[in-house]
Amino acid sequence: MSGNHIKFSADGKGGSGYIALPESGSGKAVIVIQEWWGLVGHTH
After folding, report:
1. What is the pLDDT of residues 9-44, one digit of tens each?
2. Do the Cβ atoms of 15 and 7 come closer than 8 Å?
3. Cα 27 from Cα 19, distance rounded (Å)
4. How many independent structural domains does the chain possess?
5. Which of 9, 15, 40, 41 has the fewest CB atoms within 10 Å, i.e. is most exposed?
6. Cβ pair 18, 3 in contact under 8 A
7. Which of 35, 36, 2, 44 is nearest to 19 (CA)?
8. Rounded-to-integer distance, Cα 5 and Cα 17, Å
9. DSSP letters spanning 1-44
């Protein structure tokens, strides 16, 4: 499995992420969303 850093836009704002795709081109998905302000006391 290989992955790439990606940039995208949503609601007129830019964002970035990481996408990893299986070599077969299809499979199950996992979506991980971090709070926009990063790690703070109550999240770790």
Report:
1. 988 999 888 888 888 888 888 888 777 666 677 665
2. yes
3. 13
4. 1
5. 41
6. yes
7. 2
8. 6
9. -EEEEEEEEETTEEEEEEEEE-TTS----------TT---GGG-
Question: According to the model, what pLDDT value does residue 38 have?
Answer: 66
Asked if 17 and 9 touch (Cβ cutoff 8 Å), the reply is: no
Task: Look at residue 1 in the predicted model and tell me its pLDDT.
Answer: 66
Q: Residue 28: which domain range? A: 2-43
Structural tokens at position 25: 């081109």
Distances (CA, A) of 16 to 7, 40, 42, 43: 4, 20, 24, 21
CB atoms within 10 A of CB 7: 8
